[in-house]
Design goal:
Layout lengths: L3 E6 L9 H7 L3 E6 L15 E4 L15 H13 L5 E4 L1 H9 L3 E3 L6 E9 L15 E8 L2 E4 L5 E5 L7 E4 L2 E4 L7 H4 L4 H6 L4 H10 L1 H19 L20
Parallel strand pairs: 1-2, 1-3, 3-4, 4-11
Antiparallel strand pairs: 5-8, 6-7, 6-9, 9-10, 10-11
Keywords: Glutamine amidotransferase, Transferase
Organism: Kribbella amoyensis
Protein name: GMP synthase-like glutamine amidotransferase
Length: about 250
């Protein structure tokens, strides 16, 4: 059985965080490719149980400044279209998923989100294997100014927020989240106060809310990520777990 999870790191300031602990707790081994440092992006996920694309401050088509992005988009396309392994894209990773399959991403669009944000589950979330059974609203850590402004035709929209309508999408077995399930409250405390103020947020309020909701955030996103790993660990030939919604495949 494959026991590794491939993680593509796009920015030294946006690492895998607590995903590493959640992966190793399941007896799996994370394999981190630091694409921003020149480590080559694989052409396919062969030999791994899942693919995770992390965040970064660039747009998904910023190929001049981030020359590894074309290879990352091709890896994403190959993996999702071939239904090879499940995919999770976080922040930039979600934007890459949308952009690669024909959606639109705009820089500094709308109002920024920073710190704990309330997310609303949409109707298709009720049958999604990662989200089924969650409350109608859940908290998540956000840190973005760019956002997905148009979904690909085949995408299923799963979650939204007041400032950002496209918070979570799914294409086949590829999920994209605009928020940061990997970020713990400890990381929020390291955010620069001047940046928070520049984005229109009170630094003390952002840190206090992250601390207050820390246990809830941990419980919610460790469980959701655990379901993602459950799908990654399905034996070959078992097919997908049954779920419904546009763009999904349901077991016969």
């Amino acid at each position: 059985m494959t026991t590794t999870v491939l993680i593509i790191e796009n920015d030294p300031g946006s690492g895998p965080g607590r995903l590493l602990d959640w992966i190793t707790a399941r007896g799996l081994t994370p394999v981190v490719v630091r694409a921003h440092a020149g480590e080559p992006v694989p052409a396919d996920p062969d030999g791994h149980a899942a693919l995770i694309l992390l965040g970064g401050g660039m747009l998904p088509d910023a190929d001049t400044d981030s020359p590894w992005l074309p290879a990352e988009r091709e890896l994403l396309r190959t993996t999702v279209e071939g239904d090879q392994v499940p995919v999770l894209g976080i922040c930039l990773g979600a934007q890459l998923l949308a952009h690669t399959f024909g959606g639109e991403v705009l820089g500094k669009h709308g109002l920024p989100e920073k710190g704990v944000t309330e997310l609303t589950l949409l109707p298709d979330a009720q049958a999604d294997p990662l989200l089924a059974g969650l409350p109608s609203t859940v908290p998540a850590i956000e840190s973005h100014q760019d956002q997905i402004t148009r979904l690909p035709d085949e995408a299923v929209l799963l979650m939204s927020s007041e400032r950002c309508p496209h918070q979570m999408l799914r294409i086949g077995r590829g999920w994209g989240v605009q928020f940061h399930p990997e970020v713990a409250a400890e990381r929020v405390r390291t955010w620069k106060p001047d940046t928070l103020r520049a984005w229109g947020f009170d630094p003390d309020d952002v840190v206090a809310e992250a601390d207050r909701r820390a246990d809830e955030l941990e419980q919610t996103w460790s469980a959701v990520f655990g379901r993602f790993l459950d799908i990654a660990l399905l034996p070959p030939g078992r097919g997908r777990p049954g779920w419904t919604g546009t763009g999904a495949t349901v077991d016969a």
